[in-house]
């Protein structure tokens, strides 16, 4: 499904975010990445979907080498969930979800949110999946933080991605809402077979919902274990 080989990323200021990452994610897995701020977690996800160019190494997704010529095809098969939701406040929930189809829609019509009936039905089904069908026509700034993140998830899954990338999806949510979001991602993982790669700070949530835990420290993989086999000392080291 996803194979990362000796991945490196150095920014223009000379700082190295990724220093030779090797990681393989199998189809249908739910993998959580743990690590302190600045460890390279977000950069890793952004290189997978082409939001950041890589400085060295290779990434293969669905038997495709990710590069300039393949990134559009890769982006059609991946969805992204952001920490700060990235919704348009004055748009309804359904129109925010429909923005997930912009890459495959008529550019002129989509500027005015003139989507096809079949696309609107897809958006409503996505909102139903995340339990927000009754909020379809509410503006996003009328929703709670947890509801806004669920709209973000609906937007990410409307194109039925093979891989879902979630960058700190519960960082700004209270514990109850955080559990709801992670249980929803697990539901999508199990029911649709969607592979999920999720950045988290919350160790307990990661252990509860993940098939594997990957620890990143200073741009390198520090551990890669099943939750039941995780070494507590290793967890402590990455958060010192």
How does this model look, in words?
By secondary structure, the chain is an alpha/beta fold. The protein has 2 domains: 1-77 and 162-240, P-loop containing nucleotide triphosphate hydrolases (Rossmann fold, 3-Layer(aba) Sandwich); 88-160, no CATH class. It contains 9 helices and 10 strands. The chain has helices at 41-48, 71-76, 93-98, 107-111, 117-129, 145-157, 175-192, 203-209, 232-238; strands spanning 2-10, 16-25, 30-34, 56-61, 64-65, 78-81, 163-167, 195-200, 212-217, 220-225. It has a 6-stranded mixed sheet with strand order 6-7-8-3-9-10, with helices on both faces. The protein has a 4-stranded antiparallel sheet with strand order 2-1-4-5, covered by helices on one side. The longest helix is centred in the last third of the chain and has 18 residues, at 175-192. The protein is globular and about 45 Å long. 41% of the residues are buried.
Attribute tags:
single chain; 240 residues; alpha/beta; 4-stranded antiparallel sheet; 9 helices; 2 domains; Rossmann fold; 6-stranded mixed sheet
Topology:
Blueprint: E1 2-10, E2 16-25, E3 30-34, H1 41-48, E4 56-61, E5 64-65, H2 71-76, E6 78-81, H3 93-98, H4 107-111, H5 117-129, H6 145-157, E7 163-167, H7 175-192, E8 195-200, H8 203-209, E9 212-217, E10 220-225, H9 232-238
Helix pairs in contact: 5-6, 6-7
């Amino acid at each position: 499904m996803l194979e990362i080989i000796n991945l490196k990323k150095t920014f223009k200021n000379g700082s190295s975010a990724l220093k030779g990452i090797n990681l393989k994610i199998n189809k249908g897995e739910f993998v959580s990445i743990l690590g302190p701020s600045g460890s390279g977690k977000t950069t890793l996800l952004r290189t997978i979907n082409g939001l950041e160019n890589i400085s060295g190494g290779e990434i293969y997704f669905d038997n495709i080498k990710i590069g300039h010529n393949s990134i559009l095809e890769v982006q059609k098969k991946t969805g992204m969930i952001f920490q700060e939701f990235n919704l348009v406040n004055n748009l309804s929930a359904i129109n925010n979800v429909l923005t997930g189809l912009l890459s495959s829609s008529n550019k002129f019509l989509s500027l005015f949110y003139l989507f096809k009936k079949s696309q609107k039905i897809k958006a409503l089904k996505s909102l139903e999946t995340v339990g927000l069908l009754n909020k379809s026509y509410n503006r996003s700034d009328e929703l709670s933080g947890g509801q806004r993140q669920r709209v973000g998830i609906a937007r990410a899954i409307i194109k039925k991605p093979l891989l879902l990338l979630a960058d700190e999806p519960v960082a700004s949510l209270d514990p109850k809402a955080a559990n709801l979001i992670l249980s929803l991602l697990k539901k999508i993982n199990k029911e649709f077979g969607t592979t999920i790669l999720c950045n988290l700070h919350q160790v307990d949530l990661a252990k509860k919902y993940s098939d594997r835990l990957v620890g990143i420290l200073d741009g390198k993989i520090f551990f890669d274990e099943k939750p039941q086999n995780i070494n507590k000392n290793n967890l402590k080291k990455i958060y010192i």
